[in-house]
Structure prediction request, 93 residues.
Amino acid sequence: MNTYELTIVIPEDKDGKEVARITKVITDFAKKTDGEVNKQESWGAKHLAYPIKKLAIGQYEHFVITLEPAQQVVLEKMLHMDESLLRYMFVRV
Prediction:
């Protein structure tokens, strides 16, 4: 099992239900694949370094997750297909 840091950026105009849906997808995936969400933080709304899809502000969510390497690839594909995310970044700790 490897430990990963996952940071996602969600458009600021999305409501709390959308943020809760995305965080639930990530935590449910970790539990279902015998992984674990060690830490979850909401960093709030921040100005982006450059506009993404004509948006200048995004909501940041940060996770520390323990997963098998093969499951990390599956989760990354799921995040890539989710159109409600502006950006995401996986880093192996």
Q: What stands out?
A: Strands lie at 2-11, 36-52, 55-67, 87-92. The CA atoms of residues 2 and 69 lie 7 Å apart. The domain at 2-92 is CATH 3.30.70.60 (Alpha-Beta Plaits).
